[in-house]
Amino acid sequence: MTGYKYAFFNNKIDNIENAKISIMTNALQYGTGVFGGIRGYYNSEKNFISIFRLKEHYTRLLASIKILGCDFDYSVDQLCEITIELIRQNQIKKNTYCRPFAYLSTHKLGPNLAHEKLAFCMYMIPLEDYLPTDKGLNLQVSSWRRVSDNAIPSRGKFSGAYLNSAFARKEAADNGYDEAIFLNEAGNVCEGSAENIFIVRNNTLITPDVTSNILEGITRNTLIQIAKENNINVIERAVDRSELYVADEVFLSGTGCQLAWIKSIDKRLIGNGEIGKISEFLRAKYLNIVKGNDAQYTDACTIVEMN
Ligand code: PMP
Predict the structure, then answer these.
(1) pLDDT tens, 146-174?
(2) What angle do CA 94, 300, 213 make, to 5 degrees?
(3) What are the pLDDT digits (tens) for 215-235?
(4) Which residues line ligand 1 (CB under 6 A)?
(5) Which residues, other chains included, contact 90 with Cβ-Cβ below 8 Å and sequence gap of 6+?
(6) How many CA atoms lie within 13 Å of 27's alpha carbon, on the beta-carbon side?
(7) Of all atoms in ligand 1, which is nearest to the CA of residue 256?
């Protein structure tokens, strides 16, 4: 994957060639970092990038750092400004993914976050689909359990926790599936390796509640909001594994995958194996909103005019 020319590193925008870290970096060895994933959508007609819910992404990043209990020099507003400036300097004219990363850059031996301040860096890459969107996905319930709140809280986007995701994705891919679904230690449905999950039963949208060991997804919140505004009943509650099999519709949500509809889970066809009505409706609304085209949601989009 090739990134754009400029990255943010060592407190400044610099050529990505200079954005290099030592093999002794604590975060590299122990996963002592937190990251974000933000999308910018390019509008070629009007020549702007629409960044969706920029502030919310950085508010969540700072919340993750708070859970770690580390110091950090940047505010939400500063992080937003850095992102906008980096998009400008990279003269981005494609759909793009931004990866901010706050990490323990010291070369100390041992995992220890006490009295530490995190460094900050960010790169950007062009990105279209993260998961295929031209077909329904075939998923597998993973034999791996999601890390729990008293192990590595899923509420934070901690880099070390993504080894858990990597185990599940490997198992799914090895078995010929597109993605994995985690259960939590209680045996309830949690989320995908990097996506939240929704099911539809009897026209009601149901998704695991925020105490089910999930990341509090920004796309998840947005889809809940859109559903409620359009008189679709939404319930956040514990979801059983077997509810997945009998659901009328299932989809994954996330900044990366946007809204990806599910064709089968553990070889059980979901609904009639086609995209469901509610999934289709929410996906169309969501994609229109994030691109900066919905007047009701202009506040949620940061528009960066390109030269
Ligand atoms: N769960 C996990 C584990 C994730 O990594 C992500 C991606 N950030 C999500 C859910 C979806 O979150 P969001 O909608 O904020 O991208």
Answers:
(1) 999 999 999 999 999 999 999 999 999 99
(2) 95
(3) 999 999 999 999 999 999 999
(4) 37, 191, 194-196, 215, 217-220, 253-255
(5) 4, 5, 6, 124
(6) 22
(7) 16
